[in-house]
Amino acid sequence: MNAIEFIISGMLAAATPFLLAALGELVAERSGVLNLGVEGMMAFGAALAFIIVYNGGGHILAFLVAGIGGVLLSLLFAFVALGLRANQVATGLAIGILGLGLSAFFGKPYESYTIKGISKISIPVLSDIPVIGGLFSQDIVVWLAILTSAGLWYALTRMKAGLLLRAVGENPKAVNSLGYSVFALRIGAVAFGGLMAGIAGAYASTVYTPLWADGMIAGRGWIAVALVVFGTWMVGRVFLGACLFGAVSLAGIAAQTAGLSIPSQILTSLPYLVTIVVLGIISSNKRLLKLNGIASLGETYK
Amino acid sequence: MGLALSKLPRLVRRERASMPMMLIAPFAALGLAVLTNLVLYGMLGKNPLIVLHAMLIEPFLSMYSFSEVLLKASPLLLIAQGLAIGFRAKVFNIGAEGQFVLGAIFASAIPVWYPNITGVWVWPLMLLLGALGGLCWASITAFWRVRLNANEILVSLMLSFVAIQVLNYLLLGPWKDPMGFNFPQSVMFPLDAMVPTLIPGTRVNVSLLLALALSVVAWFFVQRSFAGYKLEVGGLAPRAARYAGFSQSKAIWISLLIGGFAAGLAGAAEVAGPVGQLQRSISTGYGYAAIIVAYLGGLHPIGIVLSSFLMATLYIGGDNAMVTAGLPIAAVHVFQGSLLLAYLILATFVRNRLEWPTPHGEQGA
């Protein structure tokens, strides 16, 4: 397999942790809440899922428990940042540190253990196409992540619940005066973010790289937060952004197989550097951000 | 939902911030964090009392372990004072870890390139170089934020991940000690490249005095200077600040440069102090712990002095608990996260009070 084929076939799987976490954060931010604890919620989910699979609980239970773990941390965030009106940035950081700590704490006995991933589902005919065929041979979670993206796009643009969620982010007072509870809507959105982050972590530790190492999330939660900005809070663009980062994170391995002699540290840094550069490019377009940004993002609602 | 919410107590904003609550909050937060963590240890079958003793009492039982607390406190104090100035101006520099690493790298350049260097000026120059290294690294974030409008939280954090890779590159490649049996570490620093020890028989060095002196400077800057006032207004009310002729971009630049300078200085003092060479393990999360130190100290220079000693105690106590109670070192990070969370919960009541619903309905003020 050459480098191009390697990237094409692996891109979607590499993109999935970014995509799942970013979709969750997108929903939370659409409702006006900035939860910076994504990295910690992912790490916590990753540890829980790995422990369950390693002890024979199976992948379905692992994803379920990881999702619940993410929800619990996000509800803790909601209690402090929404219920008690604490600063959302500081609260998100606290949840991030706590989640990373808990993952290292519970994951400690499993350091560098490996487990078995899950098998791929190939689409007949399409997966036999040369060069791009690998794109159509993915595990079930990747297919579900793509379906979730489509579903979320539909919900946010075509369904009443999605429009209500967006309205909460744009103008919470108006939504309140319509008789809806701003708090209930936002808590729901934050919990969805936690669920998705937990599942994203589970995918990273039990399917994408089925081994446990402390710090294995390695900033992917933070890149997911950046992806929401890149995608200017739109599902389609976040999806494309996640694919880009999937490809970028594979570029390192691809370059090594192609025999290029680039220091591995530069290749490891690539996703972070790309994040910095793209963030600069997108953010400098103030009109774009103003047009698509969330009016009440990060503000305390009283 | 509406029915359920009306039965819950409501938060009502106080007319003015409660001074007693402000003083109680950090201690109550510590109590709350201790309690929840002890329950966690208990659930894992550890004896909570043994852990408590190891974490919070043992560090004070011998002169040596107390001196280790003082040693750990100086980098935390330095970084947190720098960060707090930015946080007060609502500039969220989360990348102190990377600025700390760059400080360590810049300072190490002198002994790595001139391993036989002598002179009393060597270590002060290294500290200065380290501070400049941190400042340069932070200036990337400042440029991205001011010129490109990019979120400083994400940029500074991404740069921390990059900084670790720069460190790895140097230690596995050009800066690796040729006589070091292929370990990823630099040469051992010569004596003149080390910060002088303050208390004989311990590892406490001059950087503690430096950190305390800079705390006084920070107090003066924040509480007494017009520049500090402008900075805070620039962050809190950008429109009002612009109206008054204070520049928000300047506030961002100054916040990040001060934060980077202090973190870089701390990184330099770490390699030229207790470590004595550039290693991969110099980055042990001080940059993140200092965020907690800054908040726990109420973003106030005097409070931060106290909270940095508390955090240092937790580090040393965590090491003890690892030995005596077999607790993983990650327990310290769990404790740190819950401590910040507990503080944020309690700090709510500095500016708000709880109002319980009256039995007649919800006609509260």
UniProtKB/TrEMBL annotation, chain A:
<protein>
    <submittedName>
        <fullName>ABC-type uncharacterized transport system, permease component</fullName>
    </submittedName>
</protein>
<keyword id="KW-1133">Transmembrane helix</keyword>
<dbReference type="InterPro" id="IPR001851">
    <property type="entry name" value="ABC_transp_permease"/>
</dbReference>
<dbReference type="GO" id="GO:0005886">
    <property type="term" value="C:plasma membrane"/>
</dbReference>
<feature type="transmembrane region" description="Helical">
    <location>
        <begin position="60"/>
        <end position="82"/>
    </location>
</feature>
<feature type="transmembrane region" description="Helical">
    <location>
        <begin position="238"/>
        <end position="256"/>
    </location>
</feature>
<dbReference type="Pfam" id="PF02653">
    <property type="entry name" value="BPD_transp_2"/>
</dbReference>
<feature type="transmembrane region" description="Helical">
    <location>
        <begin position="89"/>
        <end position="107"/>
    </location>
</feature>
<keyword id="KW-0472">Membrane</keyword>
<dbReference type="GO" id="GO:0022857">
    <property type="term" value="F:transmembrane transporter activity"/>
</dbReference>
<keyword id="KW-1003">Cell membrane</keyword>
<feature type="transmembrane region" description="Helical">
    <location>
        <begin position="211"/>
        <end position="231"/>
    </location>
</feature>
<feature type="transmembrane region" description="Helical">
    <location>
        <begin position="140"/>
        <end position="157"/>
    </location>
</feature>
<feature type="transmembrane region" description="Helical">
    <location>
        <begin position="262"/>
        <end position="282"/>
    </location>
</feature>
<keyword id="KW-0812">Transmembrane</keyword>
<feature type="transmembrane region" description="Helical">
    <location>
        <begin position="33"/>
        <end position="54"/>
    </location>
</feature>
<feature type="transmembrane region" description="Helical">
    <location>
        <begin position="178"/>
        <end position="205"/>
    </location>
</feature>
<feature type="transmembrane region" description="Helical">
    <location>
        <begin position="6"/>
        <end position="26"/>
    </location>
</feature>
From TrEMBL, chain B:
<keyword id="KW-0472">Membrane</keyword>
<keyword id="KW-1003">Cell membrane</keyword>
<dbReference type="GO" id="GO:0005886">
    <property type="term" value="C:plasma membrane"/>
</dbReference>
<feature type="transmembrane region" description="Helical">
    <location>
        <begin position="329"/>
        <end position="350"/>
    </location>
</feature>
<feature type="transmembrane region" description="Helical">
    <location>
        <begin position="21"/>
        <end position="44"/>
    </location>
</feature>
<feature type="transmembrane region" description="Helical">
    <location>
        <begin position="91"/>
        <end position="114"/>
    </location>
</feature>
<protein>
    <submittedName>
        <fullName>D-allose transporter subunit</fullName>
    </submittedName>
</protein>
<feature type="transmembrane region" description="Helical">
    <location>
        <begin position="204"/>
        <end position="222"/>
    </location>
</feature>
<keyword id="KW-0812">Transmembrane</keyword>
<feature type="transmembrane region" description="Helical">
    <location>
        <begin position="289"/>
        <end position="317"/>
    </location>
</feature>
<dbReference type="Pfam" id="PF02653">
    <property type="entry name" value="BPD_transp_2"/>
</dbReference>
<feature type="transmembrane region" description="Helical">
    <location>
        <begin position="251"/>
        <end position="269"/>
    </location>
</feature>
<dbReference type="InterPro" id="IPR001851">
    <property type="entry name" value="ABC_transp_permease"/>
</dbReference>
<dbReference type="GO" id="GO:0022857">
    <property type="term" value="F:transmembrane transporter activity"/>
</dbReference>
<feature type="transmembrane region" description="Helical">
    <location>
        <begin position="153"/>
        <end position="172"/>
    </location>
</feature>
<keyword id="KW-1133">Transmembrane helix</keyword>
<feature type="transmembrane region" description="Helical">
    <location>
        <begin position="120"/>
        <end position="146"/>
    </location>
</feature>
